[in-house]
Protein backbone atom coordinates (compact mmCIF):
# COMPACT_ATOMS: atom_id res chain seq x y z
CA UNK A 1 0.00 0.00 0.00
CA UNK A 2 1.35 3.41 -0.99
CA UNK A 3 0.45 4.98 2.36
CA UNK A 4 1.33 2.86 5.42
CA UNK A 5 -1.61 4.04 7.55
CA UNK A 6 -4.00 2.47 5.02
CA UNK A 7 -2.70 -1.08 5.51
CA UNK A 8 -4.93 -1.87 8.51
CA UNK A 9 -8.21 -0.47 7.09
CA UNK A 10 -7.49 -2.18 3.76
CA UNK A 11 -6.96 -5.51 5.52
CA UNK A 12 -10.14 -5.06 7.57
CA UNK A 13 -12.27 -4.22 4.54
CA UNK A 14 -10.89 -7.02 2.39
CA UNK A 15 -11.49 -9.55 5.17
CA UNK A 16 -15.10 -8.38 5.35
CA UNK A 17 -15.62 -8.98 1.64
CA UNK A 18 -13.58 -12.20 1.54
CA UNK A 19 -15.72 -13.72 4.29
CA UNK A 20 -19.01 -12.64 2.74
CA UNK A 21 -19.65 -9.86 5.26
CA UNK A 22 -18.85 -6.98 2.94
CA UNK A 23 -21.67 -4.59 2.15
CA UNK A 24 -22.63 -3.81 -1.45
CA UNK A 25 -22.65 -0.08 -0.61
CA UNK A 26 -19.76 1.31 1.44
CA UNK A 27 -19.87 4.90 2.70
CA UNK A 28 -16.24 5.86 3.30
CA UNK A 29 -16.05 8.92 5.55
CA UNK A 30 -12.63 10.57 5.59
CA UNK A 31 -11.02 13.99 5.89
CA UNK A 32 -9.47 15.27 2.68
CA UNK A 33 -5.87 14.14 2.42
CA UNK A 34 -6.16 10.88 4.35
CA UNK A 35 -5.98 8.71 1.23
CA UNK A 36 -9.57 7.50 0.91
CA UNK A 37 -9.28 7.55 -2.89
CA UNK A 38 -6.20 5.31 -2.70
CA UNK A 39 -7.99 2.94 -0.31
CA UNK A 40 -11.08 2.79 -2.54
CA UNK A 41 -8.95 2.11 -5.62
CA UNK A 42 -7.05 -0.70 -3.85
CA UNK A 43 -10.33 -2.25 -2.68
CA UNK A 44 -11.76 -1.91 -6.20
CA UNK A 45 -8.78 -3.74 -7.66
CA UNK A 46 -9.28 -6.55 -5.15
CA UNK A 47 -13.01 -6.82 -5.90
CA UNK A 48 -12.35 -6.94 -9.64
CA UNK A 49 -9.33 -9.29 -9.59
CA UNK A 50 -10.17 -12.71 -11.05
CA UNK A 51 -7.35 -14.67 -9.36
CA UNK A 52 -7.04 -13.32 -5.82
CA UNK A 53 -4.59 -14.80 -3.35
CA UNK A 54 -6.16 -14.04 0.02
CA UNK A 55 -6.14 -10.28 0.45
CA UNK A 56 -3.67 -9.84 -2.40
CA UNK A 57 -4.49 -9.32 -6.05
CA UNK A 58 -2.70 -11.36 -8.69
CA UNK A 59 -1.71 -8.37 -10.81
CA UNK A 60 -1.61 -10.63 -13.87
CA UNK A 61 -5.20 -11.45 -14.85
CA UNK A 62 -6.91 -9.54 -17.64
CA UNK A 63 -8.98 -7.57 -15.12
CA UNK A 64 -5.87 -6.47 -13.19
CA UNK A 65 -4.16 -5.39 -16.40
CA UNK A 66 -7.21 -3.38 -17.43
CA UNK A 67 -7.23 -1.61 -14.07
CA UNK A 68 -3.55 -0.76 -14.41
CA UNK A 69 -4.22 0.57 -17.89
CA UNK A 70 -7.09 2.68 -16.54
CA UNK A 71 -9.76 1.36 -18.89
CA UNK A 72 -11.59 -1.43 -17.05
CA UNK A 73 -15.15 -1.53 -18.47
CA UNK A 74 -16.66 -2.65 -15.14
CA UNK A 75 -15.00 0.06 -13.03
CA UNK A 76 -17.10 3.21 -13.11
CA UNK A 77 -15.98 6.61 -11.83
CA UNK A 78 -18.69 9.14 -11.05
CA UNK A 79 -17.37 12.69 -11.30
CA UNK A 80 -18.97 16.05 -12.09
CA UNK A 81 -19.30 16.86 -15.76
CA UNK A 82 -16.84 19.40 -17.11
CA UNK A 83 -17.65 22.88 -15.89
CA UNK A 84 -19.96 21.67 -13.10
CA UNK A 85 -19.42 21.20 -9.38
CA UNK A 86 -22.12 18.57 -8.83
CA UNK A 87 -23.06 15.12 -10.11
CA UNK A 88 -26.44 15.30 -11.82
CA UNK A 89 -29.05 12.72 -12.59
CA UNK A 90 -27.94 11.90 -16.15
CA UNK A 91 -24.54 10.36 -15.23
CA UNK A 92 -26.34 8.28 -12.57
CA UNK A 93 -28.88 7.01 -15.09
CA UNK A 94 -26.12 6.09 -17.54
CA UNK A 95 -24.17 4.13 -14.91
CA UNK A 96 -27.28 2.33 -13.66
CA UNK A 97 -28.15 1.32 -17.23
CA UNK A 98 -24.69 -0.20 -17.67
CA UNK A 99 -24.90 -1.99 -14.31
CA UNK A 100 -27.94 -4.00 -15.34
CA UNK A 101 -26.08 -5.52 -18.27
CA UNK A 102 -23.69 -8.40 -17.62
CA UNK A 103 -20.22 -7.53 -16.40
CA UNK A 104 -18.01 -7.39 -19.47
CA UNK A 105 -15.25 -9.29 -17.66
CA UNK A 106 -17.65 -11.77 -16.10
CA UNK A 107 -16.89 -10.67 -12.54
CA UNK A 108 -17.78 -7.80 -10.25
CA UNK A 109 -18.82 -4.26 -11.12
CA UNK A 110 -17.55 -1.37 -9.01
CA UNK A 111 -18.72 2.25 -8.85
CA UNK A 112 -16.54 4.85 -7.11
CA UNK A 113 -17.92 8.29 -6.24
CA UNK A 114 -15.26 10.16 -4.28
CA UNK A 115 -17.57 12.83 -2.85
CA UNK A 116 -21.18 11.73 -2.46
CA UNK A 117 -22.06 15.25 -1.25
CA UNK A 118 -21.74 16.33 -4.88
CA UNK A 119 -24.87 14.39 -5.84
CA UNK A 120 -27.83 16.60 -6.60
CA UNK A 121 -31.02 15.64 -4.78
CA UNK A 122 -32.45 14.21 -8.00
CA UNK A 123 -29.28 12.19 -8.62
CA UNK A 124 -29.27 10.86 -5.06
CA UNK A 125 -32.90 9.81 -5.35
CA UNK A 126 -32.18 8.10 -8.68
CA UNK A 127 -29.44 6.09 -6.98
CA UNK A 128 -31.57 4.98 -4.02
CA UNK A 129 -33.49 2.13 -5.68
CA UNK A 130 -30.31 0.61 -7.12
CA UNK A 131 -28.60 0.86 -3.73
CA UNK A 132 -31.55 -0.95 -2.17
CA UNK A 133 -31.70 -3.72 -4.79
CA UNK A 134 -28.37 -3.75 -6.65
CA UNK A 135 -27.54 -6.13 -9.49
CA UNK A 136 -25.56 -9.19 -8.47
CA UNK A 137 -21.86 -8.66 -7.65
CA UNK A 138 -22.19 -4.88 -7.87
CA UNK A 139 -20.38 -2.70 -5.34
CA UNK A 140 -20.86 1.00 -4.66
CA UNK A 141 -17.99 2.82 -2.94
CA UNK A 142 -19.10 6.28 -1.86
CA UNK A 143 -16.63 8.72 -0.33
CA UNK A 144 -17.76 11.66 1.75
CA UNK A 145 -16.36 14.49 3.86
CA UNK A 146 -19.55 15.37 5.73
CA UNK A 147 -22.09 12.52 6.05
CA UNK A 148 -24.66 14.94 7.49
CA UNK A 149 -24.93 16.57 4.05
CA UNK A 150 -26.19 13.33 2.49
CA UNK A 151 -29.83 12.29 2.31
CA UNK A 152 -30.72 10.19 5.35
CA UNK A 153 -32.25 7.61 3.02
CA UNK A 154 -28.95 7.35 1.15
CA UNK A 155 -26.91 6.92 4.33
CA UNK A 156 -29.29 4.25 5.60
CA UNK A 157 -28.59 2.06 2.57
CA UNK A 158 -24.83 2.07 3.10
CA UNK A 159 -22.36 0.58 5.54
CA UNK A 160 -20.67 3.52 7.26
CA UNK A 161 -16.88 3.29 7.56
CA UNK A 162 -14.83 6.09 9.15
CA UNK A 163 -11.24 6.36 7.96
CA UNK A 164 -9.63 8.17 10.87
CA UNK A 165 -6.49 10.26 10.53
CA UNK A 166 -3.37 8.26 11.39
CA UNK A 167 -1.48 8.63 14.65
CA UNK A 168 0.40 11.93 14.70
CA UNK A 169 3.75 10.26 15.29
CA UNK A 170 3.28 7.96 12.27
CA UNK A 171 2.31 10.95 10.13
CA UNK A 172 5.35 12.90 11.31
CA UNK A 173 7.60 9.99 10.36
CA UNK A 174 6.03 9.81 6.91
CA UNK A 175 6.34 13.58 6.38
CA UNK A 176 10.00 13.50 7.42
CA UNK A 177 10.63 11.28 4.38
CA UNK A 178 8.28 12.88 1.88
CA UNK A 179 7.93 16.59 2.63
CA UNK A 180 10.05 19.71 2.78
CA UNK A 181 10.43 21.69 6.00
CA UNK A 182 11.36 21.00 9.60
CA UNK A 183 9.45 19.06 12.30
CA UNK A 184 7.67 22.17 13.65
CA UNK A 185 6.43 23.00 10.17
CA UNK A 186 5.37 19.38 9.64
CA UNK A 187 3.40 19.43 12.90
CA UNK A 188 1.74 22.72 11.93
CA UNK A 189 0.73 21.44 8.48
CA UNK A 190 -0.71 18.27 10.02
CA UNK A 191 -2.76 20.12 12.61
CA UNK A 192 -4.07 22.59 10.04
CA UNK A 193 -5.50 19.60 8.14
CA UNK A 194 -6.94 17.57 11.02
CA UNK A 195 -3.98 15.20 10.95
CA UNK A 196 -4.33 14.26 7.26
CA UNK A 197 -0.77 13.54 6.04
CA UNK A 198 -1.32 13.90 2.28
CA UNK A 199 -3.01 17.29 2.72
CA UNK A 200 -0.16 18.33 5.03
CA UNK A 201 2.43 17.28 2.44
CA UNK A 202 0.65 19.39 -0.19
CA UNK A 203 0.62 22.44 2.09
CA UNK A 204 4.36 21.98 2.73
CA UNK A 205 5.17 22.35 -0.96
CA UNK A 206 7.50 25.41 -1.11
CA UNK A 207 5.22 27.64 -3.17
CA UNK A 208 2.15 26.85 -1.06
CA UNK A 209 4.01 27.24 2.22
CA UNK A 210 5.34 30.61 1.06
CA UNK A 211 1.78 31.79 0.39
CA UNK A 212 0.79 30.96 3.95
CA UNK A 213 3.94 32.63 5.28
CA UNK A 214 3.11 35.78 3.30
CA UNK A 215 -0.34 35.91 4.91
CA UNK A 216 1.17 35.54 8.39
CA UNK A 217 3.71 38.30 7.72
CA UNK A 218 1.04 40.64 6.34
CA UNK A 219 -1.18 40.03 9.38
CA UNK A 220 1.69 40.71 11.79
CA UNK A 221 2.47 44.00 10.02
CA UNK A 222 -1.19 45.08 9.80
CA UNK A 223 -2.12 44.62 13.46
CA UNK A 224 -0.10 47.47 15.03
CA UNK A 225 -1.29 49.91 12.36
CA UNK A 226 -4.92 48.70 12.36
CA UNK A 227 -4.46 48.50 8.59
CA UNK A 228 -6.40 45.30 8.00
CA UNK A 229 -7.27 46.31 4.44
CA UNK A 230 -3.62 45.62 3.58
CA UNK A 231 -4.50 41.90 3.87
CA UNK A 232 -6.69 42.08 0.76
CA UNK A 233 -3.92 41.20 -1.76
CA UNK A 234 -2.95 38.04 0.14
CA UNK A 235 -6.55 36.91 0.70
CA UNK A 236 -8.28 37.66 -2.60
CA UNK A 237 -7.32 34.60 -4.65
CA UNK A 238 -9.13 31.64 -6.17
CA UNK A 239 -8.10 29.58 -3.13
CA UNK A 240 -9.65 32.12 -0.76
CA UNK A 241 -11.36 29.34 1.20
CA UNK A 242 -8.07 27.84 2.30
CA UNK A 243 -6.49 31.21 2.99
CA UNK A 244 -9.39 32.14 5.25
CA UNK A 245 -8.96 28.76 6.93
CA UNK A 246 -5.37 29.78 7.75
CA UNK A 247 -6.57 33.13 9.09
CA UNK A 248 -9.34 31.62 11.24
CA UNK A 249 -6.93 29.00 12.60
CA UNK A 250 -4.61 31.78 13.79
CA UNK A 251 -7.49 33.60 15.48
CA UNK A 252 -8.72 30.43 17.19
CA UNK A 253 -5.15 29.75 18.32
CA UNK A 254 -5.11 33.21 19.90
CA UNK A 255 -8.21 32.21 21.89
CA UNK A 256 -6.38 29.08 23.09
CA UNK A 257 -3.38 31.21 24.04
CA UNK A 258 -5.58 33.49 26.10
CA UNK A 259 -6.92 30.42 27.90
CA UNK A 260 -3.40 29.29 28.79
CA UNK A 261 -3.19 26.41 26.32
CA UNK A 262 -0.32 27.32 23.94
CA UNK A 263 0.64 23.67 23.46
CA UNK A 264 -2.71 23.08 21.74
CA UNK A 265 -2.37 25.74 19.05
CA UNK A 266 -2.39 24.53 15.46
CA UNK A 267 0.11 27.06 14.16
CA UNK A 268 3.11 25.89 16.17
CA UNK A 269 5.50 27.68 13.78
CA UNK A 270 3.73 31.02 14.27
CA UNK A 271 3.64 31.30 18.06
CA UNK A 272 4.92 34.92 18.10
CA UNK A 273 2.05 35.92 15.80
CA UNK A 274 -0.46 33.97 17.87
CA UNK A 275 0.82 35.74 20.99
CA UNK A 276 0.54 39.08 19.18
CA UNK A 277 -3.09 38.38 18.29
CA UNK A 278 -3.88 37.21 21.82
CA UNK A 279 -2.33 40.36 23.28
CA UNK A 280 -3.99 42.87 20.96
CA UNK A 281 -7.49 41.39 20.68
CA UNK A 282 -9.84 40.95 23.61
CA UNK A 283 -11.21 37.62 24.74
CA UNK A 284 -14.71 38.97 24.11
CA UNK A 285 -14.06 40.16 20.57
CA UNK A 286 -11.96 37.27 19.27
CA UNK A 287 -14.92 34.84 19.02
CA UNK A 288 -16.92 37.55 17.22
CA UNK A 289 -14.15 38.04 14.66
CA UNK A 290 -13.85 34.31 14.07
CA UNK A 291 -17.61 33.97 13.60
CA UNK A 292 -17.69 36.82 11.09
CA UNK A 293 -14.82 35.36 9.08
CA UNK A 294 -16.46 31.92 9.06
CA UNK A 295 -19.66 33.47 7.71
CA UNK A 296 -17.65 35.34 5.09
CA UNK A 297 -15.85 32.14 4.07
CA UNK A 298 -19.14 30.25 3.78
CA UNK A 299 -20.57 32.96 1.54
CA UNK A 300 -17.51 32.97 -0.69
CA UNK A 301 -17.65 29.21 -1.12
CA UNK A 302 -21.39 28.75 -1.51
CA UNK A 303 -22.91 31.86 -3.12
CA UNK A 304 -22.76 31.69 -6.90
CA UNK A 305 -21.40 34.86 -8.52
CA UNK A 306 -20.43 36.53 -5.24
CA UNK A 307 -18.05 39.47 -5.59
CA UNK A 308 -15.03 38.10 -3.74
CA UNK A 309 -13.03 41.32 -3.54
CA UNK A 310 -16.01 43.40 -2.41
CA UNK A 311 -16.98 40.93 0.31
CA UNK A 312 -13.42 40.69 1.63
CA UNK A 313 -13.03 44.49 1.55
CA UNK A 314 -16.21 44.93 3.56
CA UNK A 315 -15.06 42.37 6.10
CA UNK A 316 -11.57 43.88 6.47
CA UNK A 317 -12.91 47.42 6.86
CA UNK A 318 -15.29 46.16 9.52
CA UNK A 319 -12.35 44.57 11.31
CA UNK A 320 -10.47 47.89 11.23
CA UNK A 321 -13.43 49.63 12.84
CA UNK A 322 -13.65 46.96 15.53
CA UNK A 323 -9.94 47.27 16.27
CA UNK A 324 -10.39 50.97 16.90
CA UNK A 325 -13.39 50.47 19.17
CA UNK A 326 -13.16 50.42 22.94
CA UNK A 327 -14.02 46.70 23.05
CA UNK A 328 -10.63 45.93 21.54
CA UNK A 329 -8.70 46.58 24.72
CA UNK A 330 -5.35 44.79 25.08
CA UNK A 331 -5.53 41.54 27.01
CA UNK A 332 -3.54 42.91 29.95
CA UNK A 333 -6.15 45.62 30.57
CA UNK A 334 -9.09 43.21 30.85
Automatic annotation (TrEMBL):
<dbReference type="InterPro" id="IPR015199">
    <property type="entry name" value="DNA_pol_III_delta_C"/>
</dbReference>
<dbReference type="InterPro" id="IPR050238">
    <property type="entry name" value="DNA_Rep/Repair_Clamp_Loader"/>
</dbReference>
<keyword id="KW-0808">Transferase</keyword>
<dbReference type="InterPro" id="IPR048731">
    <property type="entry name" value="HolB_lid-gammaproteobact"/>
</dbReference>
<protein>
    <recommendedName>
        <fullName>DNA polymerase III subunit delta'</fullName>
        <ecNumber>2.7.7.7</ecNumber>
    </recommendedName>
</protein>
<dbReference type="InterPro" id="IPR004622">
    <property type="entry name" value="DNA_pol_HolB"/>
</dbReference>
<keyword id="KW-0239">DNA-directed DNA polymerase</keyword>
<dbReference type="Pfam" id="PF13177">
    <property type="entry name" value="DNA_pol3_delta2"/>
</dbReference>
<dbReference type="Pfam" id="PF21500">
    <property type="entry name" value="HolB_lid"/>
</dbReference>
<dbReference type="InterPro" id="IPR027417">
    <property type="entry name" value="P-loop_NTPase"/>
</dbReference>
<feature type="domain" description="DNA polymerase III subunit delta' AAA+ ATPase lid">
    <location>
        <begin position="166"/>
        <end position="205"/>
    </location>
</feature>
<keyword id="KW-0548">Nucleotidyltransferase</keyword>
<dbReference type="InterPro" id="IPR008921">
    <property type="entry name" value="DNA_pol3_clamp-load_cplx_C"/>
</dbReference>
<dbReference type="GO" id="GO:0009360">
    <property type="term" value="C:DNA polymerase III complex"/>
</dbReference>
<dbReference type="Pfam" id="PF09115">
    <property type="entry name" value="DNApol3-delta_C"/>
</dbReference>
<dbReference type="GO" id="GO:0003887">
    <property type="term" value="F:DNA-directed DNA polymerase activity"/>
</dbReference>
<dbReference type="GO" id="GO:0008408">
    <property type="term" value="F:3'-5' exonuclease activity"/>
</dbReference>
<feature type="domain" description="DNA polymerase III delta subunit C-terminal">
    <location>
        <begin position="207"/>
        <end position="321"/>
    </location>
</feature>
<keyword id="KW-0235">DNA replication</keyword>
<dbReference type="GO" id="GO:0003677">
    <property type="term" value="F:DNA binding"/>
</dbReference>
<dbReference type="GO" id="GO:0006261">
    <property type="term" value="P:DNA-templated DNA replication"/>
</dbReference>
Amino acid sequence: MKYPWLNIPYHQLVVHYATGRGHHALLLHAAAGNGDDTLAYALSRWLLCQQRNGEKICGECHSCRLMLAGNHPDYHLLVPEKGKNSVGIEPIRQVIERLYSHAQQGGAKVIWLSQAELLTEAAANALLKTLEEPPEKTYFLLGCREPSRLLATLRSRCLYWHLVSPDEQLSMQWLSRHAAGNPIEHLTALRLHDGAPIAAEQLLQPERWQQRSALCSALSAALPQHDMLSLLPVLSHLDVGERLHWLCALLVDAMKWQQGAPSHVLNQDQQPLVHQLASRLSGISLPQIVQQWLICRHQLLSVVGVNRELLLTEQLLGWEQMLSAASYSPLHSL
